[in-house]
C-alpha cells in the first residue's frame, strides 16, 4: 500500500520531501517550523500514540484548542490510522459528554486549555479506557510510522453545529479529506503565500483550512485568537495573503475605526462563506482592501467548499456562490427529484470530498445521501451556465402576504443604509417580519427612519413590521475570536415579545 493514500502523508510528508526547509507553520508569531520540522514533530506524536496503545482503526476523542497541538495531534492520528472524533471545546459540558458517550471512542486526548472540563466529564465516561495529556504526548522517534489507514478508510468524525439537536457525526475518509485539501488549487496563490487563521481549525476547519494550506505548500499562520483586534496585529506582522472567514467578521472589523491606520495591503485573497455577502458589505471591503480578490464559497460539513467564485471583478455575480470547483458537482432538484435550472429547489452536492455518511445513524444518512448526491436542506437556484445562488435554509424562509422571502434579502437592504453595521431578519407571529439592526461605532439609528427608508426599496411582503435597534446580534460561539454565524433563532426569542 502506498503511504500517500494516507491523508497526513499526502499533505505533510510529501511537502517535507519536496521543500524540507520551507517554513510550513508559524505559531503565534513565536515558533516557526519548516515542513521537515513539522513532519518530525508529527512523527514524534505518532510514535507516542502507538506507545500509549492507540491502534489503527481505534476511535480517539480529541478535545483540543491549542492550535499547534491540534495540527500535530490530528496529523499524527491520521498517520497511524486512528479515527479522530474532533470535539468542539465550546460545546456545553452535557453536549460534550453525550457526544463522546455515543462516539464509540475508547481513548481521549486533551490539552491544558480543557483540563477542567476533562476532570468534570471523566467519571461519567467509563468506556474511555485511555486518557492522554497532549503535553506528555511525545517520543524520541522521529522516523515515519507505518501508515495505518488510507483511501476510503475513515479518517475522522467531524460534527455538525448541532443548532437543531445533538451534533451529528460526519464521517470523512482519507480520500474525501484529501479531496477537500485541493481547494486552493482553484484559487490564485504564489510560492510565498501565507494563510492566516485561528483556533477554529478543530473540527471541519482542519481539513478545510490546515490541509489545503499545507497541501499547496503555503505557510500556515496559526493564532489562538483570530478576532478583529488580533487580526489587525497579525496580518501586517506576518504579511498574511489568504484568509477564509464569514461576512460578519468584516462587518465587525469595518464597523469601527481601529482598522484605519493598519497596513492590510498584503491580503490578496478573501474567502467568504457561511452566510450571505451583501453588496454594501462587499463595497466596504473593496474600499478598504482594493487589492484583494473576494471569493464566495458554499459547502457544508458534509461536503466542504463545493462551490466558489470571485465576486468582486464581475466574473461571478454577487449574491451567488460561483460554480462547482474542480472535481465537484452541484445540481438543483424539485420536490419530485427532477433536476431544474433557474428554478428554486433543493441544493445537491457531489464530489470526492463528500462525506461517507453519518456515523451509526443510517436513517439520517439515508435522508441526505441520494446516490452520489448530498442533499442537506438548503434552497437555491442554478443558472444554465452552472452558477449557484444559495437562498438559505428551508426553515429560515419568511412567509408574508402569501410570498416567501429569505431573510438575507431584507438584511441586505438594511445594511445598505447609512450607519447600519449589521442586520438580522426573522419571521415572527402570523406572517410578520422583525428586523434587528446594529449601528456602526459612534453612530445612532432611528427605527422609524429605517422603516421609511426600507419602504422605498422593499416590496410590501418584505418590509419589516417591527424594527429593533440593538447593541449587537447573537452569533454562534466558536474559537475564531470574531463573530460566528448569525443566530436568527435567538433574535426571534429575544424580541418575540415586541410583536405578540
Describe the model:
This protein is α/β, with parallel strands linked by helices. Helix content is 28%, strand content 26%. The protein is globular.
Secondary structure class reads alpha/beta
Strand arrangement in the largest pleated sheet? 6-5-3-4-7-8-18
Number of DSSP helices? 14
Radius of gyration: 23 Å
Protein name: AMP-binding protein
InterPro entries: AMP-bd_C (IPR025110), AMP-bd_C_sf (IPR045851), AMP-binding_CS (IPR020845), AMP-dep_synth/lig_dom (IPR000873), ANL_N_sf (IPR042099), ATP-dep_AMP-bd_enzyme (IPR050237)
Domain AMP-dependent synthetase/ligase: 16-358
Domain AMP-binding enzyme C-terminal: 410-475
Short synopsis of the structure:
By secondary structure, this protein is of the alpha/beta class. The chain has helices at 7-18, 35-51, 67-80, 93-101, 115-121, 174-180, 205-215, 228-238, 247-253, 279-288, 362-368, 407-415, 447-457, 488-495, and strands spanning 23-27, 31-34, 59-63, 83-86, 107-110, 130-133, 154-159, 169-173, 194-197, 219-222, 242-245, 269-272, 293-300, 303-310, 323-324, 329-333, 345-350, 357-358, 369-370, 373-382, 388-393, 398-400, 403-405, 420-428, 432-439, 466-469. α1 (7-18) crosses α3 (67-80) and α1 (7-18) packs parallel to α7.
